[in-house]
Amino acid sequence: MDRMRYYTGRGDSGETDTMGFGRISKGSALANLLGDIDELNSVIGIAIVNTTDSSIAGMMKTLQDKLFKAGADAASSTINKKAKRITKMDVEWIEEQADDLSSKIPDIKKFVLPGGSIAGSYLHLARSVARRAERSAAMLSKRQKINPELLAFLNRTSSLLFVCALYMNKKAGAEEDHPRY
User: Fold this and answer.
1) What are the average pLDDT values for consecutive 10-residue runs of the chain, which has 181 residues?
2) How many CB atoms lie within 10 A of CB 155?
3) DSSP of 28-75, one letter per residue?
4) Do the beta carbons of residue 161 and residue 130 sit within 8 Å?
5) How many CA atoms lie within 13 A of 13 on its CB side?
6) pTM (2 decimals)?
7) Pairing mode, if any, of strands 15-17 and 23-25?
8) All domains of the chain, ordered by start, with CATH?
């Protein structure tokens, strides 16, 4: 029986395949965005396995699904068609989740150092990767047309991850630490 190979060698020259743009340089703005979204999805996976809250885990799994849509949106040429994968409804979903969770935590009056509980720490890490993905999307949008909802989606994703980190830290009894400057 032939076993599946998990490598092709097609990327050895520094290029990769996309759904709508053909082969692109792995050093391109698009490849950077796709890598950032992939990394974000992976860090969220680590946060999921380290959370004891099933509602947060479920929310993060839904977010992972949406991040796959975001990556597909960026990697395809559907921007020239009517159907976009990330929509205003995806952005609104994130806002609803963040609003619901923020009602369960105290207001933040000063900067928060990333940390706290294990789940909170991974959610803070995911937040910072989401910010990088947002910056990559902004850079890509200066070079080519992208779904405008993608920028809003990534912006709100980092906000949701921040609120989730604060919520998980509160639930774990971990007090937020603040910069001493």
Assistant:
1) 82 78 81 96 97 96 97 74 82 98 90 90 97 97 90 97 96 83 78
2) 17
3) SHHHHHHHHHHHHHHHHHHHHHT---HHHHHHHHHHHHHHHHHHHHHH
4) yes
5) 6
6) 0.90
7) antiparallel
8) 15-172 (1.20.1200.10)
